[in-house]
Design brief:
The complex is a heterodimer.
Chain A: H1 12-24, H2 33-64, H3 66-104, H4 116-121, E1 127-140, H5 155-160, E2 182-187, E3 205-210, E4 215-216, E5 219-223, E6 227-232, E7 238-242, E8 251-254, E9 258-262, E10 270-276, E11 283-289, E12 294-296, E13 302-307, E14 312-320, E15 324-332, E16 338-339, E17 342-345
Chain B: H1 4-22, H2 26-46, H3 52-78, H4 93-96, H5 99-111, H6 115-126, H7 131-138, H8 142-172
Helix pairs in contact in B: 1-2, 1-3, 2-3, 3-5, 3-6, 6-8, 7-8
The chains are: A alpha+beta, B mainly alpha.
Chain lengths: 351, 173
């Protein structure tokens, strides 16, 4: 036995060696991607649980306050009824917006004419019935083959698409029409666009849905002052992140079915990308305009920019996420709508 | 609103390294990682956080030490040689032990430290935070950090020395 009488101690050098060894341990191991996803899920579950707890505590408080609770209930009923009214009104607006896109599919056979005097009066009230510019955007050249997306990161999404899900950045109709092109009218030759009505309260909510692990629509166009309603029609976790610069950012986790999260009203003209941080293939584009003279092409490539616009010379800008921007000049005379057909071709593909 | 997605992207690797170096069991480390961010969610709600990285590392270290202590206590109950590290049982273990064994020896010893001392030791010696950063993260004065670190090292010397001596005695017998 060779024990000493004093308690034995390790040297500082030994402690330092151990510390260095422990400091280096695990240094080379990267963060597992799956752990990142499950941690995000845990965060949203914790967040949802907190909301539930606070909701139930509010409920207890209401039950205990007797007469006050009755008054609150009456008030809540009134608010609920009002909310229902507002919601149905918004749904009808939403319906109209969807219909607007469908209507854009078929430009009017005869372009409606509007008297210049009326155009003056209607300058602040663009109408889908009196489009100022109609047309079709087509793709010419060899049809690009859509890329098959890798859904292996989420088995639930993969199960929704047994035949695979394909990249939606280039969607071509049977006759070459190019969908999801954003068209807008800008100034040319010193002609000012009619001043839009000042937007003081949100008047319209555009819906961006997450359906079967993709964003619907893939390209959305809204006006400054509009809100975006983020829906989740999938019963699984999505996390919507908006890569805004000049507009209110949003980064929302939606652990399951969600009828809609309403963002703040858009503040500035900007184009920004929206992505789902849980599913890297999910992308959408939101285009915010300061005026109401814009449109997005439908699956046939057709569009109709609402009018009326006063006579004058304008520039039409078309943007597509893969093919970039194209511009064309046009002139409006006698309040008549013009037809502007545009084409994108393969050589404009970057790279 | 805190961008947790971005937060995990930015600080996740650092937090993962912190928990992984203290916890050899991967499942423990993964649970600890998640618990750290869920605890951070609560912390962020309660108060503004000046240094997210330091706060996350503090939470991660405390949780990992708790888990480490729990695991070694369990193994001590099951084993005849309670909480013994996988240190080489030859008379001069340091000379021949691998880096992994040295690291494991320190893990076991850290589980024996009082929580505050373990936190200070990990944040300063393992994560490389300065005295003032550790003081800010733990709500202590810089002097208190120095004292706690001194006591931690003194206790580690005794704990580690005692373990080696015990092993030497067993080998001699």
């Amino acid at each position: 036995m060779n024990e000493s009488s004093n308690p034995p101690e390790a040297s500082d050098a030994a402690i330092d060696s151990m510390t260095a060894a422990l400091r280096d341990a695990g240094a080379a191991e990267p963060l597992p991607p799956e752990l990142r996803r499950t941690t995000l899920e845990a965060l949203w579950v914790a967040d949802a649980a907190r909301h539930e707890r606070s909701a139930s505590s509010r409920g207890r408080l209401l039950r205990r306050t007797g007469r006050l609770a009755a008054v609150l209930t009456i008030v809540a009923c009134g608010v609920g009824a009002a909310a229902l009214g507002v919601r149905s009104w918004r749904l009808s607006k939403e319906h109209r917006a969807t219909f607007h896109i469908v209507r854009n599919a078929r430009p009017p056979a005869t372009a409606p004419a509007t008297a210049p005097a009326e155009a003056e009066d209607l300058a602040n009230a663009p109408s889908e019935e009196t489009p100022s510019v109609v047309g079709r955007v087509r793709f010419v050249g060899a049809r690009p083959v859509p890329e098959k997306l890798d859904l292996s990161g989420d088995a639930a999404c993969a199960a929704m698409h047994p035949d695979g899900l394909f990249d939606e950045s280039v969607l071509l109709g049977d006759t070459g029409g190019l969908a999801n092109v954003v068209l807008s009218v800008e100034l040319a030759g010193g002609v000012a666009l009619p001043a839009p009505q000042p937007v003081t309260t949100p008047t319209f909510a555009a819906v961006l849905d997450q359906r079967r692990c993709r964003f619907v629509p893939h390209v959305l166009a809204v006006r400054v002052g509009d809100q975006v309603v983020i829906k989740n029609s999938d019963n699984l976790l999505h996390n919507v992140q908006a890569l805004t610069v000049n507009n209110p950012p949003f980064n929302i986790g939606q652990p399951g079915l969600d009828r809609g999260y309403r963002t703040n009203a858009m503040r500035a003209a900007e184009r920004y990308r929206v992505r789902c941080s849980v599913h890297p293939w999910m992308n959408a584009w939101v285009n915010v305009f300061a005026h109401p003279y814009f449109a997005v092409t439908n699956p046939d490539g057709a569009y109709a920019i609402p009018g009326p616009l006063p006579d004058g010379r304008y520039t039409l800008t078309a943007w597509h996420e893969k093919f970039g921007e194209k511009q064309a000049k046009f002139e409006l005379k006698d309040g008549k709508a013009v037809t502007m057909d545009l084409t994108f071709d393969a050589p404009t593909l970057p790279g | 609103m805190v961008d947790w997605d971005g937060m995990i992207d930015r600080e996740g690797p650092t937090v993962w390294r912190t928990v992984r170096r203290l916890l050899t069991h991967r499942a423990d480390a993964e649970e600890c990682f998640q618990e750290t961010f869920v605890a951070a969610l609560e912390l962020w709600r309660r108060e503004p956080v000046q240094s997210p990285r330091a706060a996350l590392q503090r939470i991660a270290t405390a949780r990992a030490i708790d888990r480490l202590r729990q695991r070694y206590r369990e193994s001590a109950r099951r084993s005849q040689a309670p909480g013994c590290p996988a240190v080489d049982s030859s008379p001069s273990p340091l000379d021949r032990a691998s880096a992994a064994e040295l690291a494991e020896a320190l893990r076991v010893a850290l589980a024996d430290l009082p929580p505050r001392q373990a936190d200070v030791f990990c944040l300063h010696c393992l994560d490389g935070h300065s005295y003032s950063d550790v003081a800010d993260a733990l709500g202590l004065s810089v002097d208190a950090v120095g004292v706690l670190l001194h006591r931690a090292r003194a206790r580690l010397r005794v704990v580690i020395g005692g373990r080696w001596n015990m092993k030497r005695v067993e080998v001699t017998r």
